[in-house]
Amino acid sequence: MGRSPCCSKEGLNRGAWTATEDKILTDYVKIHGEGQWRNLPKRAGLKRCGKSCRLRWLNYLRPDIKRGNITHDEEELIIRLHKLLGNRWSLIAGRLPGRTDNEIKNYWNTYIGKKLQNQQSHSLRNHKPSNQSQNKAKPSIETSFRPPSKANSNSCVIRTKATRCTKVCSHRPEPQLEDSKLSKPRPFSLPEEPESSEHVPKEDNDPSNFLIDLEVDEIFLSEFLNSELSQLQPSHFQNKGDHSDSNTVRCEQGQYSSTHVTTMIQDVDFTAMASLMEFELDWLQDQADPN
DNA sequence: AAGCTAATCAACCGCCCGGTA
DNA sequence: CTACCGGGCGGTTGATTAGCT
């Protein structure tokens, strides 16, 4: 039994949103708030699917959307979060204020993934490892990256052709124009040596300072996943029903869905995790009350 | 200058999940 | 327990744009 479609597609506008549609949607959400997306188009007088309205609002019209290029620090954070969370774009976006999952996903698929691919192929050329060592290689961020299908056919090909990224702007103030269409960010070239970040000054209000708390998260999550979960029964790692793994967190070899983690949390020995929790709680307290 | 190619990213699609009646 | 609804998510598509020849 299939689901009923979210809306009748007949007579609805598709494709790019017009300024008028944007205004109608923005005005409506400002007055009535988010939610009830299915009914929103009818009530607001938009010839759009409710899902489309939600997406437009979340990815483009929300007032807290951060426009402009992804900074070097944000990129680092994305890479590290992706290492932890895999393609959980919404979770990753949750740690990057003002960035949307769609934006991060696109950014990953274009810049970062490509860069990592290039780095990988570069090291492969340099080291030429044996097949055996290749097969036993630990899954990494590089191998977990999957480029868009269009690029699949030649995903192993190293693009030597220059791209159109000619603007070097690793850290610059983003334009804040009224018309978001006019301020549409254009691509920028990634630094050749991402490790050197000395040219990127840190500001106090720089959201990329989230890197700091990521240190805690990463330690905590890694300890949690790697130590406690490894002691659990294999049954814990089975997906419930025949659902796909769309809601799972990939962490090296294991996959854990949020519900499984909940189940596992119920089963683990909490005293064994006390020190980890204390560490996290201390840190949280420090954040809440620095004095 | 024109045509071609590749990159970008907003938008779409389909599936899944949680809540509820 | 089941069906349905609303919403969210990740993967994919395609129009637009920019760079190259």
TrEMBL record:
Residues 118-143 have a biased composition (Polar residues). InterPro entries: Homeodomain-like_sf, Myb_dom, Myb_TF_plants, SANT/Myb. GO terms for cellular component: nucleus. Residues 9-61, 62-116 form the HTH myb-type domain. It comes from the Eukaryota. Pfam families: Myb_DNA-binding. It is found in: Nucleus. Gene3D superfamilies: Homeodomain-like. Residues 9-61, 62-112 form the Myb-like domain. GO terms for molecular function: DNA binding. CDD domains: SANT. Keywords: Activator, DNA-binding, Nucleus, Repeat, Transcription, Transcription regulation. Residues 171-182, 196-205 have a biased composition (Basic and acidic residues). SMART domains: SANT. Residues 118-156, 169-208 are annotated as: Disordered. PANTHER family: MYB-RELATED PROTEIN MYB4-LIKE (PTHR47999:SF86), TRANSCRIPTION FACTOR MYB8-RELATED-RELATED (PTHR47999). This is Myb-related protein 123.
